[in-house]
Amino acid sequence: MAAPDKTPARISGMFDSIAPRYDLLNRVLSLGLDQKWRRRAVVELQLGSNARVLDLCTGTADLALATVARHPDASVVGVDFSGAMLSRGLVKVRTAALDRKIQLVRGDATRIPLADATCQGATIGFGIRNVAEPERALAELARVLAPGARLAILEFGQPRIPGIKTLYAWYFKYVLPAIGRRVSKHQSAYSYLPASVGTFPPPAEFARTIERHGFVTVEAVPLTLGIVYLYIATRR
Ligand SMILES: C[S@@+](CC[C@H](N)C(=O)[O-])C[C@H]1O[C@@H](n2cnc3c(N)ncnc32)[C@H](O)[C@@H]1O
Questions:
Q1: How far is the C-alpha of 126 from the C-alpha of 197, rounded, in Å?
Q2: Is any ligand 1 atom within 6 A of the Cβ of residue 15?
Q3: DSSP character for 40?
Q4: Probe ligand 1: pick from 34, 54, 80, 111, max atoms within 8 Å of CB?
Q5: What percent of the chain has pLDDT over 70?
Q6: pTM of this structure
Q7: Ligand 1: nearest atom to the Cα of 58
Q8: Is 62 in the pocket of ligand 1 (CB under 6 A)?
Q9: Quick one: three-class SS letters along 105-139?
């Protein structure tokens, strides 16, 4: 399968277009499981008190909000290059009166606008797959994380149990793009989703890539039968 075009202008433009319906589609297409996966990622950060956390590819800030919901003394910097996704996020942050706790910044994952070793945790929810140069983003994460800080990355996977695998492949390839196209009114964004997941490295390989960029004790934990993988790592 050929890797889809991930040039920053195409990806940010695509997320700008689907931003108004992004949260709704997440809830519907995941049957409400997406927020559960985010909460699990936050637990795995094992944050101490007053931690500063980076949420890379923050989109509409759901992971940033989940972090502060569990750790009210934490502060989060959410970084994303889609202005429209960040605008939706900002409305949610302001509605929750959390604008002093969550700061949303426009920026690229491969040039994180933060100083070295200034974060005690970092998350990426369903974002790394979209980054054209994921290894540069991992190197940047290693740069901004303090030694001992934990990284939690959520990304889609492909279930391996026979039967479930076939059923899910049918849902992911045909049903999800059809619903996504109808609700978002974007012709290709929800076909790009299975295409980008299909060309993402298998969990063991991606875990090794994380390890090569300054992380230890890297784990790839399957969630919901392997529909999603949670990668957990500690900054060396
Ligand atoms: C599928 S959304 C995930 C949003 C959010 N993390 C969540 O859990 O719902 C992927 C996000 O990654 C952002 N993104 C992709 N590549 C990026 C890059 N190179 N730099 C910054 N943001 C990027 C997109 O703009 C989009 O908002």
A1: 10
A2: yes
A3: H
A4: 80
A5: 100
A6: 0.97
A7: 6
A8: yes
A9: EECCCCCCCCCCCCEEEEEEECCHHHCCCHHHHHH
Q: What are the tens digits of pLDDT across the range 127-184?
A: 999 999 999 999 999 999 999 999 999 999 999 899 999 999 999 999 999 999 999 9
With DSSP H G I counted as helix, E B as strand and the rest as coil, what are the percentages for the chain, rounded to 5? 45, 20, 30
Amino acid identity of 109?
A
- In this structure, the strands spanning 228-235 and 145-156 are antiparallel
Phi (first) and psi of residue 148, to 5 degrees: 90, -10
Mutate to test the pocket of ligand 1, among 14, 15, 26 (most ligand atoms within 8 A of CB): 15
pLDDT tens sequence across 101-125 = 999 999 999 999 999 999 999 999 9
Does ligand 1 come within 6 angstroms of the Cβ of 131? yes
77: helix, strand or coil: strand
